[in-house]
Amino acid sequence: MLAHEEQDTAPAETTTQTGGIAADRLRSIIERVERLEEERKALAGDIKDIFSEAKSAGFDVKTIKQILKLRKMEPAQVEEQETLLDIYRRALGM
């Protein structure tokens, strides 16, 4: 369980059953997802602000995004992609 997740500690016998569904547990799950979606929205806004800062500092945001994508890849995948790009460029006379 992640540190920011809450654990449902209500005893099973006090859980409200509605149509065979543990309503309290369901509500807890939905509320946790809603909180995480709010956090994700806030983080997306923060990332957008950072890209705006980079752009105002004279950096090319598109290139930064490409670098971020490459940093997530395994070194062998990066090398393979760069090799293919080089082959395609030479084939097109670039």
Our count of helices gives: 3
Q: What is the structural class?
A: mainly alpha
Domain tally: 2
- Order of H and E elements: EEHHH
> What's the total number of strands?
2
Radius of gyration: 24 Å
Strand content: under 5%
Task: Kindly report the average pLDDT value.
Answer: 88
N-to-C terminal Cα separation, in Å?
51 Å
Q: Major β-sheet, in short? A: 2 strands, antiparallel
Stretches where pLDDT falls below 50 for ≥5 residues? none
Coarse shape: elongated
Order of adjacent strands in the largest pleated sheet:
1-2
Helix content estimate:
55-70%
Write up what this structure looks like.
The chain has helices at residues 23-56, 61-72, 75-91; strands spanning 17-18, 21-22. It has 94 residues and is mainly alpha-helical. It has 2 domains: 18-59; 60-93. A two-stranded antiparallel sheet has the order 1-2.
Structure summary:
This protein is 67% helix and 4% strand. It has 94 residues and is mainly alpha-helical.
